[in-house]
Amino acid sequence: MTDAFDPSALFGGGAGGDNPMAGLLAQVQQMQTQVESAQEEIAAAEVTGSAGNGLVTVSGNGTGDITAVTISPEVVDPDDVETLQDLIIGALADLAARRDALVSEKMGPLGGGLPGLG
């Protein structure tokens, strides 16, 4: 005589066991909520990059939009436009680095995936 196949036995469900799939789904839903929360925090964040000890600053949000540029009058020299251009590029690079650091801070712990996978 053969026993009937119980598909719940594959997932630990049924008589005498918790269903690990239900636990895994709960972890996925929790991670999804955390990711959405982190994305909202990143989008709402104001990030500022600067160059030349603050002579040029560029502000933006966490999604990549630039919201403001401030240039100190002392770096505006019609005979030396290259320096101003370099300062703007430096401020933009600093802004990008700070935005990347913000994203890593907010999303980094969520990037590890689920325990037991990967």
Low-confidence segments, given as residue ranges, are none
Report the count of strand segments: 3
Structural class, judged by helices and strands? alpha+beta
Percent of residues in helices: 40-55%
Domain module tally = 1
The biggest beta sheet is recorded as: 3 strands, antiparallel
The second-level CATH architecture is 2-Layer Sandwich
Organism: Gordonia hydrophobica
Keywords: Coiled coil, Cytoplasm, DNA-binding
InterPro entries: YbaB-like_sf (IPR036894), YbaB/EbfC (IPR004401)
Subcellular location: Cytoplasm, Nucleoid
Report on this model:
A 3-stranded antiparallel sheet has the order 1-2-3. By secondary structure, the chain is an alpha+beta fold. The protein starts with 19 loop residues before the first helix and ends in an 11-residue tail after the last helix. The longest helix has 27 residues, at 81-107. It has helices at residues 20-44, 81-107; strands at 46-51, 56-61, 66-71. The chain has one domain (10-110): Ybab, Chain: A (2-Layer Sandwich), CATH 3.30.1310. α1 (20-44) runs antiparallel to α2 (81-107). Belongs to the YbaB/EbfC family. This is Nucleoid-associated protein RVF87_05730. It comes from Gordonia hydrophobica. Residues 21-48 form a coiled coil. Keywords: Coiled coil, Cytoplasm, DNA-binding.
